Amino acid sequence: MFVLPRLPILSLVLTFRVTDTIAFPDVPGHVWKGMLGNALMSEGLKDHRGHGLFESLFAPTAETCLALPDRGEKPAAIVLDMPGAAVADDAHKWRLTADEAPRGTNMVLGVTLFGVAASSADVIVNQLAHVAAAGLGKASANGARGTAALARVQLRDQTGSLRDVSLNVDNMLSIAATVPLIPATAPRQALVQFVSPLRIDAPTGRGSDKSPLLARQLDAVQFAATLMRRIAALSACHGDETVPLDGLKTALEGLRFSSADLVDCGYMKWSARQQREIRTTGVLGSAVIDLSSHSWLWPWLYLAQFTHVGKDTVEGMGGLRVGNVERS
After folding, report:
1. Which of 9, 24, 109, 187 falls between 20 and 30 A from 83, CA-CA?
2. Mean of the pLDDT values across residues 204-216?
């Protein structure tokens, strides 16, 4: 039906040792994105093609994209998340359970890179280590921020298994991104667990205004269309394949959740447009998708575990896990 693109992915887990207490907001990914972005811009760093690394990672343009994605969407080539045993029925696993990371504790950050961005992994890890040592998180009354030192770098495979990589990040140049292997047999009923808030914006009917879909509004077609468009855009912009999605709406007709246990979850995020923190809403929980008539969707659904889905994916939102209901 729709051929899944071969999108190379590199996933790392970084462990930082806190050297001076760090105060974080709800979603640490927002802080890491801001600090890393500022560092990349101020340093003027380039990727291996000579393009600005900030633009390649966070703000792809027609120039930095390998091909122009369908609908003009140009997604970031990086996801910053909090890896761990996140489960769908615990709304706090995807964010910090405390307001700060005290001195002497470990802080873990997941870094996932797509396509050509993986070739800049050594530079990105170096810059993350630099911003952590220079000052991270909320500023205190005197303007000081907490600090941390990079203590460990690990490679995360598609099963979630970790292996250590030398802290001499120059050696990371030999680590290649790989295309995840997709289980060949599609389940008739696929269990989807949303492990960080899924935010999909939809028209409100008032001009061009959009608002996040609530748990009671989310359906399987909207979810599937969103994840497929994101994967296709990632491949076109950062991989080497362009996948047409003509006829997607028709192909998804009849797709449904055979059961769903979804809840709304609010979280705070920084709005660059408004220059302030704002509250937005995502969906957490679990759902079972009936694939009996849409088995072709299975590879896309499986790959979405690595790409995340929806809005704010750079900061780790839209994370999910999928499996066979019969084996769960």
Report:
1. 187
2. 83
